[in-house]
RNA sequence: GCGGACGUGGCGGAAUCGGUAGACGCUGGAGACUUAAAAUCUUCUGCCCAUGGCGUGCGGGUUCGAGUCCCGCCGUCCGCACCA
């Protein structure tokens, strides 16, 4: 008998067998029910990390399980291959972004293959290849031609050293994350996708996504940020007017000022004739936007000298330019009600403006406001003319009705969501297929000229956009007039690439982005698995893109992902030397630094990251323990939505279990006869339980049940039941540890691949126990347990309970006050 | 500040409907096998003043019975943030 499972040999063998048999290639024409399991595709940064391993293992277990339960499973893999790291590598290592990216893909693909994932590699795609991004350009033009794309001047974060636009996340304390240069606000002409056109749909659609985490739905809801209120006009003392938006029209009579944003046209107009105002506006722009700065920043205003006429005849209000009013939200102007808004309260306190209470919470009918802070709760209107006595909600409706009747305002809805700016002044992305002609204006690149490919001969030795400074690339003839014209030298935000890759996986014809009917046969994705860091942007953009495709008539699909699961991170202890250097796990042993023996401080358990050096590279681990042990560990212990702490003990334990399985699997079946009713029952309970747990993605629970079954089999005496249990266990563990399962299946000459077998059937008769353990309690406290036949009548159970020694003693000759009998569960004797 | 999640042994965690808290794994103890070690196997492992008592962050409540439901605190983590 071979004593050990040789993982290295078995892994390679079965991976090759699956590859050659195209076991996991999804068949578009299959008669089986189709299902689509997808993990978020990786960015090819260099090597795979433990987070990838955990993510893809979870998806793999589900995909393999669904195959075994009779589904035709689409489980593809590809590469989110455009993006900045490739350009940074180009600058630092003098290597072309494409060369760097494709090399990384090669490395990471080989690494993924070694983990034995049941992936359909025939559908592999990389977003940096023209046969992907060319179709994306076609979709962009479809959107453009149906009015979902527009061009607008917009303020961006401009890094003057790197000469590029930075995303908000790349601006740290007002400086560029790479260059450290002070970031400037610049106006640039940018392409926008009209995501706000779908704001309501995207919001309402969240309601249908029952298999998404509530947390993610809530985050998206807050991101979209729908607010309903009143938009109305104040007449100004200079003859103009100012439009404001409020969600609290009920507090109209509490208004004591009007404030506009620093970049509001009214503020600009005032500044033109008033240097003090201009200076104030300049000062507003300097303020930082980080949380801490906003927290401490004082509310500041500049009195324009203008006044606004209250539309309901409540006098004239001063008009300020204020630093806390945002141009980007609502109309860029507000009316201030200090008694019922904290910011307005702070502002009014500073500038000695009236604070008049118009909503009373009942306890304090006195309308003169003397609270130390604004009151924002519900209540009854006071000091408000025709609104007096109404509650807040009624008053809102009354004011909106009055405004609409009087023609000075209307009920209105405002969203926090902005249109999606997709222009990036970078090389390594999808070129925007538009040509700018001095005579014809913007012209779409004709379809037959797609793809617009990236030039290869680019340089990264100077900052700025290599496409823009390429000597010839941008110079083209205008498709309309044939005159000299220029290509748009911007590329699309890489979130565009990841907004439809799941459709291209389902169907990839050469001549168009996808075939509608094939795509619709696979989509929506039944289960999507990835990190919660994509809860908003990627998932919202993909939802939008899908709706936009439906809008232009390319697919009949509202939501791309029916089920979403956000898995936790892989974490590890951190270690620090006395001098503050971070140390890697393999530099530390027994609490001291191996090199030099210096003392080591064990820090918090944190997400694996290069900066804290607490990463564990999957590759040597797979070398040492084999793919199955790594997979098993990824599924064990921690619930999948929570963080998993990597530990040496954990992987060792997983490896021990794989070997334990092998001791059961290795060799011939015993050939013993006779049945073992208890083992049969345990087996069928495990089949049902593990199946349900996998469906629920509760892999840690499935693992626990498999441990229990394994122990039960080990302890059982030889019997036909035991032989059956062992053969069945092979199939039960197959989704999780597929290599040892194939090896064992082949050794027992079961025929075919275990990957192609069916999930074992459950015998429902064996799921019910014939005996139950009943808890005997006194006043709710456990005193004894009794094992009785299942389904025994109440009175018999009660009699048995009252005959128990401890109960007789507790009763001490008295009759119980009450006896509660829960059939097949417990008896509670109340004294 | 607003919104949300969570809090169970030495550790990760189970407990699906309000019904035996601590499944399963890790760590640790004892033992078997061995010249020895590794591996493996057996067994124990919430706490304490131990025929009993106490225990699911803290304080109350509902109930025959609460980790689970209700009220009030405390703590940790996450998201958003001058959003009118």
Automatic annotation (TrEMBL):
Assigned EC number: 6.1.1.4
Pfam families for this protein: Anticodon_1 (PF08264), tRNA-synt_1 (PF00133), tRNA-synt_1_2 (PF13603), tRNA-synt_1g (PF09334)
GO cellular component, one term: cytosol
Entry GO MF terms: aminoacyl-tRNA deacylase activity; ATP binding; leucine-tRNA ligase activity
Domain Aminoacyl-tRNA synthetase class Ia: 415-573, 602-647
Entry binding sites for ATP: 610
Keyword terms: Aminoacyl-tRNA synthetase, ATP-binding, Cytoplasm, Ligase, Nucleotide-binding, Protein biosynthesis
Record's protein name: Leucine--tRNA ligase
Taxonomic classification: Bacteria, Pseudomonadati, Pseudomonadota, Alphaproteobacteria, Sphingomonadales
Encoding gene per record: leuS
């Amino acid at each position: 008998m071979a004593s050990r499972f040789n993982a290295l040999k078995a892994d390679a063998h079965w991976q090759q067998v699956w590859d050659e048999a195209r076991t996991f290639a999804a068949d578009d024409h299959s008669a089986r029910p189709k299902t689509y399991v997808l993990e978020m595709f990786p960015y090819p940064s260099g090597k795979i990390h433990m987070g990838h391993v955990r993510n893809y293992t979870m998806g793999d277990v589900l995909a393999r399980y669904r195959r075994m339960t009779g589904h035709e499973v689409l489980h593809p893999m590809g590469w989110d291959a455009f993006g900045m790291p490739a350009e940074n590598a180009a600058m630092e290592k003098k290597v072309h972004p494409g060369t760097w990216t494709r090399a990384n893909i090669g490395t990471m693909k080989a690494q993924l293959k070694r983990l034995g994932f049941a992936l359909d590699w025939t559908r592999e795609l990389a977003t940096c290849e023209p046969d992907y991004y060319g179709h994306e350009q076609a979709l962009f033009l479809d959107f453009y031609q149906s009015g979902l794309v527009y061009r607008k001047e917009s303020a961006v974060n401009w890094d003057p050293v790197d000469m590029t636009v930075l995303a908000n996340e790349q601006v740290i304390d007002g400086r560029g994350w790479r260059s450290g240069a002070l970031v400037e606000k610049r106006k640039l002409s940018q392409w926008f996708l009209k995501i706000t056109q779908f704001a309501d749909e995207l919001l309402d659609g969240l309601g249908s996504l029952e298999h998404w985490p509530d947390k993610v739905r809530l985050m998206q809801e807050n991101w979209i940020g729908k607010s309903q209120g009143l938009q109305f006009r104040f007449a100004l003392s200079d003859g103009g007017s100012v439009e404001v938006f409020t969600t609290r029209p009920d507090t109209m009579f509490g208004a004591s000022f009007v404030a506009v944003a620093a970049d509001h046209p009214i503020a600009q107009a005032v500044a033109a004739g008033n240097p003090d105002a201009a200076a104030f506006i300049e000062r507003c722009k300097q303020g930082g936007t980080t949380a801490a700065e906003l927290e401490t920043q004082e509310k500041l205003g500049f009195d324009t000298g203008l006044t606004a006429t209250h539309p309901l005849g409540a006098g004239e209000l001063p008009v300020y330019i204020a630093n806390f009013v945002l141009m980007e939200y609502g109309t860029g102007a507000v009316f201030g009600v200090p008694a019922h808004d904290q910011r307005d309260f702070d502002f009014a306190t500073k500038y000695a403006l009236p604070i008049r209470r118009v909503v009373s919470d009942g306890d304090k009918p006195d309308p003169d406001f003397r609270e130390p802070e604004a009151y924002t709760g519900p209540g009854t209107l006071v000091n408000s003319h025709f609104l007096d006595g109404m509650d807040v909600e009624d008053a809102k409706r009354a004011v909106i009705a009055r405004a609409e009747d009087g023609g000075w305002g209307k009920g209105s809805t405002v969203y926090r969501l902005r249109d999606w700016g997709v222009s990036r002044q970078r090389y390594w992305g999808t070129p925007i297929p538009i040509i700018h002609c001095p005579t014809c204006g913007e012209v779409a690149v004709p379809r037959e000229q797609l793809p617009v490919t990236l030039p290869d001969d680019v340089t990264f030795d100077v900052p700025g956009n290599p496409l823009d400074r390429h000597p010839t690339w941008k110079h083209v003839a205008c498709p309309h007039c044939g005159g000299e014209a220029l290509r748009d030298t911007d590329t699309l935000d890489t979130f565009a690439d990841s907004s439809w890759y799941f459709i291209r996986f389902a169907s990839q014809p050469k001549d168009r982005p996808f075939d509608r009917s094939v795509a619709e046969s696979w989509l929506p994705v039944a289960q999507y698995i990835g990190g919660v860091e994509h809860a908003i942007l990627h998932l919202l953009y993909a939802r939008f893109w899908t709706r936009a495709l439906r809008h232009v008539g390319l697919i009949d699909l509202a939501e791309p992902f029916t089920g979403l699961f956000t898995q936790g991170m892989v974490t590890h202890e951190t270690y620090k030397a006395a001098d503050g250097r971070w140390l890697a796990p393999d530099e530390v042993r027994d609490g001291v630094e191996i090199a030099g023996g210096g003392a080591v401080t064990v820090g918090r358990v944190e997400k694996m990251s290069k900066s804290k050096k607490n990463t564990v590279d999957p590759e040597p681990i797979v070398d040492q323990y084999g793919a199955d042990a790594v997979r098993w560990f990824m599924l064990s212990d921690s619930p999948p939505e929570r963080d998993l702490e990597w530990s040496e003990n954990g992987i060792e334990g997983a490896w021990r279990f794989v070997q334990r399985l092998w001791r059961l699997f290795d060799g011939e079946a015993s050939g013993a006869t006779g049945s073992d009713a208890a083992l049969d029952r345990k087996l069928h309970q495990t089949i049902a339980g593990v199946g349900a747990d996998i469906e629920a993605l509760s892999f840690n629970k499935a693992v626990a049940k498999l441990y229990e079954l394994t122990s039960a089999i080990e302890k059982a005496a030889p019997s036909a039941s035991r032989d059956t249990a062992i053969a069945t266990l092979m199939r039960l563990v197959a989704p999780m540890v597929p290599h040892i399962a194939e090896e064992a299946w082949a050794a027992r000459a079961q025929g075919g691949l275990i990957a192609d077998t069916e999930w074992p059937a459950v015998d429902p008769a064996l799921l019910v126990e014939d005996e139950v353990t009943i808890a005997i309690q006194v006043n709710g406290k456990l005193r004894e347990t009794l094992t009785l036949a299942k389904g025994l009548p109440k009175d018999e159970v009660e009699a048995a309970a009252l005959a128990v020694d401890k109960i007789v003693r507790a009763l001490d000759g008295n009759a119980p006050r009450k006896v509660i009998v829960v059939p097949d569960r417990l008896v509670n004797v109340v004294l």
